[in-house]
């Protein structure tokens, strides 16, 4: 190998090393927290602007004590949401304890109606207007086959439907993937902390609830777990009226 060829090869190697070091440095750069939060806000705004309404079927199951196999009450409802109006529920079926149905699940549906009324629903959105958000360390995570960022969230106001915990947002578009935490306020003086979890799925490009779980302890009912499974979504989208 002559001297000229050797110098050319050395120059090429040097360039490749510079490129590699640049790529490594880019990967080492921490994600931009402010940009991720803006992306989450934008995803919520796009959903609000474009989902004019929807229907789905929600199946509620209630478990008592340490038994999360045999439910003590179940209810299936059709949820009908209209933007600017709110939600209405139609009971499709119910079984089990009449006390749990009457004093547990039916008041929960009434509470959901209230939360989703215009003027109320905006306060429950997972946005920087309602929550302080801080990116958690550890980089991207993978949940249900999707790359996401985890953010610690603290509500700016206390309410039973606002959560202190963690939000996972899709790294591509900022849409919700999962939330997990504790209600910032107990719905009753007779209840302890309520632990909440909700998973989301992508329906027609928008984050919609897929599965939820709430666990609480009550002086009256003891340990209670409520799960909700969401299915049969039909979305009314802007431009597809």
Structure description:
This protein is an alpha+beta fold and 241 residues long. The chain folds into 2 domains: 1-30; 32-237, outer membrane lipoprotein receptor (LolB), chain A (Clam), CATH 2.50.20. It has 3 helices and 11 strands, in the order H-H-E-E-E-H-E-E-E-E-E-E-E-E. Strands 1, 2, 3, 4, 5, 6, 7, 8, 9, 10 and 11 form an 11-stranded antiparallel β-sheet that branches. The radius of gyration is 24 Å and the shape is globular. The mean pLDDT is 87.
Pattern of helices and strands: HHEEEHEEEEEEEE
Number of domains: 2
Provide a count of the helices.
3
What's the gyration radius in Å? 24 Å
Query: Which geometry do the CA atoms define?
Result: globular
- What is the arithmetic mean of pLDDT? 87
Low-confidence stretches: none
**Roughly how much helix do the residues carry, as a percent range?**
25-40%
CATH topology of the largest domain: outer membrane lipoprotein receptor (LolB), chain A
Q: Strand content of the residues, in percent?
A: 35-45%
Instruction: Describe the largest sheet.
Output: 11 strands, antiparallel
Terminal residue distance: 72 Å
Q: Which descriptors apply to this entry?
A:
alpha+beta, 2 domains, 3 helices
What is the topology?
Layout: H1 3-28, H2 33-50, E1 51-64, E2 73-82, E3 86-96, H3 98-115, E4 131-135, E5 141-143, E6 146-155, E7 163-170, E8 176-183, E9 195-203, E10 206-218, E11 222-237
Antiparallel strand pairs: 1-2, 1-11, 2-3, 4-6, 5-6, 6-7, 7-8, 8-9, 9-10, 10-11
